[in-house]
Amino acid sequence: MKTKTEGKRLAILKAAADVFREVGFERASMSEIRARIGGSKATLYNYFPSKEKLFFEVMYHAKELELASITHTLNPDADDLKEELLHFGQRLLAVLYSPEAIAIRRLAIAESRHSNIGKIVFEGATLPIEKQVAEFLRKGMKGGALRTADPKTAAMQLLSLLESELLQRVLLGVVSSVKPEALNSAARRAVETFLSGYGRR
Amino acid sequence: MHVKKSDFKRQAILDAAYRLFRAQGFEKTSVAEITAEVGGSKATIYSHFPSKEALFVECMLAAAENYTAGTLKHLDTSRADPELALRNFGTSFLSFICSPEQLEVRRLMIAEAARSGTGKLFFDKISALRADVSAFLSARMASGTLRADDSNLAADHLGALLEAEILEPLLLQVREVSPEAEEIALAVKRAVAAFLRAYAPAGRQRRPLRRRRRHGAPKNDWRVPPPGEKESHSA
Fold first, then answer.
1. Does A110 touch chain B (CB under 8 A)?
2. Same domain? B60 vs B148
3. Same-domain pairing of B153 and B206
4. Domains of chain A in sequence order
5. Residue B198 forms part of a structural domain
6. Shared-domain flag, residues B175 and B96
7. Residues of B whose CB is below 8 A from A156
8. Angle at which helices A151-163 and A180-198 cross, to 10°
9. N vs C: which end of chain A shows fewer Cβ within 10 Å?
């Protein structure tokens, strides 16, 4: 068997990214990707054992970076905590509910038994966001804007609330995309509920 | 109770289909294969279920429907204390959805929904189940123990709070073992506390159940705290 090269790997990733972008994940096929780069199907499968793995490789890291850039914008010294959370929630949902992120999410759940994709997503995306949000909330509690509670629990609750109206609908493919206005208003309702629960009265 | 012969057949079809779909997924399982397991003809199956898709949805959600029918009593609106009612409901709900079997059903449902076009069927059924929670909350809003708001939204928020601490690592198999009763009870307690604070009627503050009961539970579900009283934290 030929040794794998980084150049070939990158060429495959590039071709796959093009195909996924052009026809979407469902309709993309390994043979179409192979056709773009030449070589045998066996070679392609030698690099990536499935369309799912390939898709994950292509899409995940870009999304991971996008998510990281959002959490780092949470400013604990902001004057208006509600505005800060709202802004964060809306940006978070915009990334999480992009077609690529949804496909990754669905894949992570569906494939979790057969691969480590679930673990990669949880450790690379879920946990860091949770940690950043918890840190922000902890400062809010310390500063007196929020009632004192376990910041980690509060962070998980806030993140879950943000997705409460959308997650099931989108994972089940009932809607293929959510309009920005709908994301924004769902985020607003979630933040309001969260702050009614955790705000000082 | 008299059970019709065709009900037995229907159940046999559901059982066989459930086993086959779980073992091989939606695509690889054929109606012919299900027929081979239960006997009869394809026509028999189609006399009970309009399509393979409908059969898939039906057998995946059969447990959830049985569960919902059995859980409704926890949502009895005549119960005096919404916190207790919600905690009972939350505990049973979370234990159910975190069971290894239901986690697998959920994974399969999500994996197949987009591919097979069954997503809408699943969603409609799940929405019907959620309607019961929504009705419970709606009655509470009408009686003034919760603030008036969109009860469907409140049901979504309650569900999200209940799942917040536990579901995702299980679904992604980062965590292998389903939670014990004690862990579920704590997560439910925190979720219900946050929910009741968030949906408390305007101007009223909820006093935690624990303290109220220790001092002999008053009849009122809600009370206005005396000025200056500190809220105690249960989380």
1. yes
2. yes
3. yes
4. 1-48 (1.10.10.60), 51-198 (1.10.357.10)
5. yes
6. yes
7. 164-165
8. 150
9. N
Range of the domain at B161: 53-211
Residue B31 lies in a domain: yes
* Domain CATH code at residue B11: 1.10.10.60
Q: Nearest-CA distance from B110 to chain A in Å?
A: 6
- Find the Cα–Cα–Cα–Cα dihedral B18, B171, B167, A91, rounded to 10°: -130
Residue B227 token pair: 């000025």
pLDDT digits (tens, 9 = 90+) for B183-226: 999 999 999 999 999 999 876 555 444 444 434 333 333 333 33
Instruction: Flag whether B97 is in a domain.
Output: yes
CA angle A109, A115, A119 (to 5 degrees): 65
| pTM: predicted TM-score of the whole model, two decimal places | 0.84
Residue at B232 is within a domain = no
Same domain? For B92 and B136 the reply is yes
- Establish if B202 touches chain A: CB-CB under 8 angstroms: no
Instruction: Give the closest-approach CA distance of B43 to chain A in angstroms.
Output: 29
Place of tokens 């998510």: A67
Helices (H), chain B: 5-28, 31-38, 42-48, 52-71, 82-97, 100-116, 119-143, 151-163, 167-171, 181-198, 209-214
Nearest-CB residue to A164 (from B109, B156, B197): B156
Rounded CA-CA distance A68/B67 in Å is 40
Estimate the crossing angle of helix A81-96 against helix A51-71, to 10 degrees.
170
Q: What is the pLDDT along chain A (201 residues), one digit of tens a residue?
A: 557 888 999 899 999 988 888 887 778 899 999 999 988 889 999 999 888 888 888 888 778 888 888 888 888 888 899 999 999 999 999 999 998 888 889 888 988 887 888 898 999 889 999 999 999 999 999 999 999 999 999 999 999 999 999 999 999 988 888 999 999 999 999 999 999 999 886
How is residue A34 annotated by DSSP? H
Query: Cβ–Cβ of B198/A196 closer than 8 Å?
Result: yes
Are B194 and A108 within 8 A, CB to CB?
no
- For residue B80, give the amino acid letter: A
